[in-house]
């Protein structure tokens, strides 16, 4: 069952909502945060007709966006249920809502206006739900459209679960005629085998007319036939039950209409007209559905209009028309005010992608960025005197900025401060633990030295743990760093640094754990853990990281990646991000060797794109002081240059 | 030559007193002034030029406040705040100040000024721009908006004040406090830079953009009172200030050796603790903390929770 449906604007105001069960607003908020703003979840392209979904807690969310009106339609339902008609509902509701409130949405008071949309929505839900129970949802779109035309007819059918062979056969024999005819069959209460034969025999029109005649005969004849119906109703669905409860008075209504029915019937042979007659008849007998019927007609009118409009727009215009539009397009490209289409964007987007690739952005990230920009721009109007290229460039800039900007502030000192402040109150608690991982030779130890120097400047007592127990010379290398830093700190009279080493061949995770214990016992503020370099696609080496994370419990795990690496950066980031087991991810990247690549800083984008994890530091030189924070405008400038 | 003759023939036609010529003359005589009037009236009397900017972390209640004020000023039968979600785009809304709220410029008017009475019929309008508070969108929408609006010379888009919303119920947690404070730090830093660029002459002080820290959600049981919100924010900003001063430089710092002292909020002497009062004395940017609530005033009259914020807005006009 549907839990909630909301229509909200991109500015965050819920214009209309309906909830069948209380759903916390954090569910929709997390959809907005994760999908629209942070773009954490990679959205599959909707080429195969399956729209993207988002799962949060026990709910599944589906959505549609309307770019013209800046609206988002969100449907929330329980993940346990498989509701096939949600997509249809979203499509229909978005069309109807926009069509109904076009003027209001464009107006000044769009945010605060009342949208009496409940009845339309209820009608749609009922219709689609009934269709779903009748088994039409899985059908082809053609059958779906047919079902839409006569909701109640199929609703009647929906009551008793039709015998499987009958349903299968009728679906198989006639593609378009079957929905109107099936309701008649139970009413005549003809044996199902007979129906199968007629169904097989051919065109739906004939069958339904015959059925119609039978129905008419039964209606005019007496209440004897009525009894047959009544006898059947307990088995049937809710629509019929309502009709039953109306009692004798209602029979007159039905009969009066039935007199009119044959007249229509006789001159009507096309199934479509047949269906309409069926509709009125069914509605009349089901009392209290008058409003519903009007509404249904209105809704269907809107939907059909939208469909035909779409068909019209997709149909190619004449030769002259296309020539004019081409000239107009060229003019508008210079003057601005051009509505962008896929075709307009294709070439500049390709150029943009090449440009990004030249800047060492991984192909995957470049394609994704371009797709995002394309989706954002298609259907938009360019500004005055703005060419397509300029519009594309500014959109790309803003999306680069968005991808690089961290979600929360990354003030490392601030965080260390809060941890150490808590430590002062109670002795023997944990120091702040930072561990550094990465591929071989990217500069883990060097960056560890830089971070250590930076923290020493801020007067912390630091313990360096040598957990690279594998590569020969690794411990000695750190010892040299520690000696240098000790001397520097002594000279400037700030902080203190010590090396914790246990030689080679030991298990790195155990050494790390011991180091943290040693650090907390001896009152160190920060423990920096150096790890062995490992290839990201070597399962054996990567698996030991999970144990390491469990034993050392680092507050922060930073991964060092070099700016030189190209396409591989995506896989590196992804594999390291997943290596620490469930519930533990990387906390940030350090991009080293930025001074060696000039303006080709695409690795920054690739890594963040792959994981959504921010860049904390940049290594920009060989000295201890050559560590920098990331400046987003700087990076975007370099990339767009 | 033919062109000349053509024009000459037209001129002759117009001057010979035919009904056609007279009609054109009449049309021009009456039409041009009307047209000019319409053009100039449009440009002058178009939307109110007092802008306010709504800033603050996500979930503080910015959009809720905006929709509430909007529905309040639209003569709705019962103004209410619509349910809201995280914003992705900015919105601009024109809002009518309630008649009962005094306007700051009233002090320059005589008691007998007829415009005071006319305010009943002709309430003051102002515009509020709501910005998304999400961390990724702050820089591109909130802060850049603040920069452009505060720097613009154009009277249309001039900024009169900044409303910084804070969720007082969430601020007792360190994470939320840090988030709010770091955003506020960035906002104040922008205003400080602007103030210092203009020079320190006292005449300019009046033109500084005041900041209202709207301590929202006072109706909740867990909410902190406004005094303690002020203290908490001051302490946290002080901490951020200290760690910023010790922190690393940006990668862009190498390119342009900017003067680093601009980047620290408040006094250069880090021994001083930060306070909004000292900030006002030094920079001239006025910062107020006022409590209120967008929702939850069913028992009171409608809009009592935002009344004090509206008064602050009125003082800025």
TrEMBL record, chain A:
It is found in: Endoplasmic reticulum membrane. SUPFAM superfamilies: Domain of the SRP/SRP receptor G-proteins, P-loop containing nucleoside triphosphate hydrolases, SNARE-like. Residues 229-240 have a biased composition (Basic residues). Residues 214-223 have a biased composition (Low complexity). The keyword Endoplasmic reticulum applies. Keywords: Endoplasmic reticulum, GTP-binding, Membrane, Nucleotide-binding, Receptor. Residues 614-627 form the SRP54-type proteins GTP-binding domain. It is a peripheral membrane protein. Residues 136-240 are annotated as: Disordered. Heterodimer of an alpha and a beta chain. This is Signal recognition particle receptor subunit alpha homolog. It comes from Aspergillus mulundensis. The lineage of its organism: Eukaryota, Fungi, Dikarya, Ascomycota, Pezizomycotina.
TrEMBL record, chain B:
It comes from the Eukaryota. InterPro entries: P-loop_NTPase, SRP_receptor_beta_su. Residues 115-137 are annotated as: Disordered. SUPFAM superfamilies: P-loop containing nucleoside triphosphate hydrolases. It is a single-pass membrane protein. Its main location: endoplasmic reticulum. The chain crosses the membrane at residues 20-41. One of its GO terms (cellular component) is endoplasmic reticulum membrane. One of its GO terms (molecular function) is GTP binding. It holds the Pfam family SRPRB. Keywords: Endoplasmic reticulum, GTP-binding, Membrane, Nucleotide-binding, Receptor, Transmembrane, Transmembrane helix. It is found in: Endoplasmic reticulum membrane. Belongs to the SRP receptor beta subunit family. This is Signal recognition particle receptor subunit beta. It comes from Aspergillus mulundensis.
């Amino acid at each position: 069952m549907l839990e909630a449906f909301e229509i909200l604007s991109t500015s965050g105001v819920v214009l209309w909502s309906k909830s069948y069960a209380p759903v916390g607003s954090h569910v929709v908020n997390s959809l907005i945060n994760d999908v629209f703003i942070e773009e954490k979840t990679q959205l599959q392209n909707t080429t195969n007709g399956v729209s993207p979904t988002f799962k949060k807690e026990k709910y599944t969310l589906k959505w549609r966006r309307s770019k013209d009106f800046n609206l988002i339609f969100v449907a929330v339902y329980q993940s346990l249920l498989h509701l096939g008609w949600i997509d249809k509902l979203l499509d229909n509701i978005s069309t109807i809502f926009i069509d109904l409130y076009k003027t209001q949405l464009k107006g000044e008071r769009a945010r605060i206006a009342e949208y009496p949309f409940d009845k339309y929505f209820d009608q749609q839900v009922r219709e689609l739900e009934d269709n779903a129970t009748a088994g039409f949802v899985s059908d082809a779109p053609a059958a779906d459209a047919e079902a839409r035309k006569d909701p109640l007819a199929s609703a009647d059918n929906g009551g008793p679960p039709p015998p499987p062979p009958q349903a299968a056969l009728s679906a198989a024999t006639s593609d378009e005629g079957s929905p109107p005819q099936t309701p008649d069959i139970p009413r005549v209460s003809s044996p199902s085998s007979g129906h199968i034969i007629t169904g097989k025999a051919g065109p739906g029109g004939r069958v339904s007319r015959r059925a119609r005649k039978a129905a008419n005969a039964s209606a005019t004849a007496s209440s004897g036939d009525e009894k047959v119906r009544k006898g059947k109703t307990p088995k049937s669905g809710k629509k019929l039950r309502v009709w039953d409860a109306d009692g004798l008075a209602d029979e007159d209504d039905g009969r009066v209409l039935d007199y009119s029915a044959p007249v229509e019937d006789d001159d009507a042979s096309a199934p479509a007209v047949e269906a309409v007659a069926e509709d009125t008849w069914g509605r009349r007998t089901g009392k209290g559905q008058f409003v519903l019927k009007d509404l249904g007609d209105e809704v269907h009118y809107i939907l059909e209009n939208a469909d035909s409009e779409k068909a019209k727009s997709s149909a190619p215009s004449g030769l002259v028309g296309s020539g004019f539009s081409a000239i107009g397009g060229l003019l508008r490209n210079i003057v601005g005010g051009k509505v962008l289409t896929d075709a307009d964007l294709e070439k500049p987007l390709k150029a943009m992608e090449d440009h990004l690739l030249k800047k060492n952005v991984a192909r995957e990230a470049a394609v994704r960025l371009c797709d995002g920009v394309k989706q954002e721009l298609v259907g938009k109007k360019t500004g005055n005197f703005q060419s397509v290229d300029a519009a594309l460039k500014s959109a790309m800039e803003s999306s680069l900025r968005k991808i690089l900007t961290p979600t929360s502030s990354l003030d490392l000192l601030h965080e260390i401060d809060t941890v150490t402040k808590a430590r002062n109150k109670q002795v023997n608690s944990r120091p702040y633990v930072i561990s550094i991982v990465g591929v071989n030779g990217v500069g883990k130890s060097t960056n560890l030295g830089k971070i250590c120097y930076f923290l020493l400047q801020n007067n912390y007592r630091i313990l360096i743990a040598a957990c690279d127990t594998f590569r020969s010379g690794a411990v000695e290398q750190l010892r040299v760093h520690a000696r240098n830093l000790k001397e520097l700190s002594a000279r400037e009279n700030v902080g203190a640094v010590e090396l914790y080493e246990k030689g080679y061949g030991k298990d790195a995770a155990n050494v790390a754990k011991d180091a943290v214990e040693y650090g907390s016992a001896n009152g160190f503020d920060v423990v920096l853990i150096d790890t062995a370099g490992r290839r990201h696609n070597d399962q054996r080496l990567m698996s030991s990281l999970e144990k390491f994370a469990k034993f050392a419990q680092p507050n922060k795990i930073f991964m060092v990646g070099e700016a030189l690496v190209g396409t591989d950066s995506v896989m590196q980031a992804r594999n390291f991000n997943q290596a620490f087991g469930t519930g533990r991810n990387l906390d940030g990247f350090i991009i080293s060797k930025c001074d060696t690549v000039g303006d080709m800083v695409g690795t920054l984008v690739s890594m963040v794109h792959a994981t959504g994890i921010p860049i904390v530091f940049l290594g920009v030189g060989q000295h201890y002081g050559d560590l920098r924070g990331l400046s987003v405008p700087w990076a975007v400038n370099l990339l767009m240059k | 030559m033919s062109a000349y003759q053509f024009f000459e023939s037209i001129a002759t036609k117009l001057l010979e007193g035919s009904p056609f010529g007279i009609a054109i003359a009449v049309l021009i005589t009456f039409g041009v002034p009307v047209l000019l009037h319409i053009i100039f009236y449009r440009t002058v009397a178009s939307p109110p030029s007092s802008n306010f900017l709504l800033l603050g972390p996500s979930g503080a209640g910015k959009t809720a406040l905006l929709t509430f004020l909007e529905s309040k000023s639209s003569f709705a039968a019962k103004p209410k705040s619509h349910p809201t979600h995280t914003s992705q785009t900015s919105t601009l809304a024109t809002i009518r100040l309630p008649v009962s709220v005094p306007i700051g410029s009233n002090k320059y008017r005589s008691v007998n000024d007829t415009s005071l009475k006319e305010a009943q019929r002709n309430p003051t309008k102002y515009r509020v721009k709501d910005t998304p508070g999400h961390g990724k969108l702050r820089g591109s929408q909130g802060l850049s908006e603040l920069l452009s609006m505060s720097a613009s010379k154009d009277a249309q888009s001039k900024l009169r004040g900044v409303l910084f919303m804070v969720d007082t119920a969430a601020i007792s947690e360190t994470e939320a406090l840090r988030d709010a404070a770091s955003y506020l730090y960035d906002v104040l830093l922008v205003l400080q830079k602007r103030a210092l660029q203009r020079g320190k002459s006292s005449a300019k002080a009046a033109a500084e953009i005041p900041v209202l820290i709207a301590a929202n959600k006072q109706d909740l049981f867990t909410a902190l009172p406004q005094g303690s919100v002020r203290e908490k924010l001051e302490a946290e900003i002080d901490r951020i200030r200290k760690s910023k001063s010790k922190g690393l430089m940006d990668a862009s710092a190498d390119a342009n050796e900017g003067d680093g002292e601009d980047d620290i909020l408040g006094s250069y002497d880090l021994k001083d603790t930060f306070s909004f009062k000292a900030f006002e004395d030094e920079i001239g940017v006025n910062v107020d903390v006022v409590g209120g609530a967008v929702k939850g005033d069913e028992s009171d009259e409608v809009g009592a929770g935002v009344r004090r914020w509206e008064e602050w807005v009125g003082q800025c006009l």
